[in-house]
What we know:
Blueprint: E1 2-3, E2 9-10, H1 16-36, H2 43-63, H3 68-93, H4 110-130, H5 134-146, H6 155-172
Antiparallel strand pairs: 1-2
Amino acid sequence: MALAPLDIPVYSYVSLGGVVTGLSLFAWDFTRWWTSHKKRFAVKPLSALLPQLLCMAYGALLVLSAGGIIGGAADWSLWGTNTAGDIVLVYGLGGTTPDVTRGTHLALTPGGHAVVIIITVVIAAVCSRRGFRWDFVRHILSGISLGLASSIAGFIGFAVAPSVSWAGDYVTGLL
């Protein structure tokens, strides 16, 4: 456990239970999307899936943040999804929950952190206009749970973080 700015603890640890929780949250909404569309590969049904993928990417960016209040909230959410999944795996099935955190930790650059703040403002604007969106919370929690995983489940964090950091650095003039 390291301390980030403001002395808010950053755990940066994901267990198998956390990955199971993240994949379960993703599977819940993906299954509902799949069963509600007959022509799944048309533009309109695919556009209905886009908010889920964007919120998952945002969640992965949150857990890769250096810390602070938003990063701390993401870390606490990761702790919660780890705990929920661990309880289900250990007490529900009698299994174990090993550490499945990626060996090399990706970190956002200062420009990447700026992009995370901008995306947070956009999500707050969307939610203030249309009301609180529980589906966004599920998608973001899914991304938080999967962002640090070392498997293909963690690909979202591995793919999104460098591109967001580069874009943020480029736009803010840090490159």
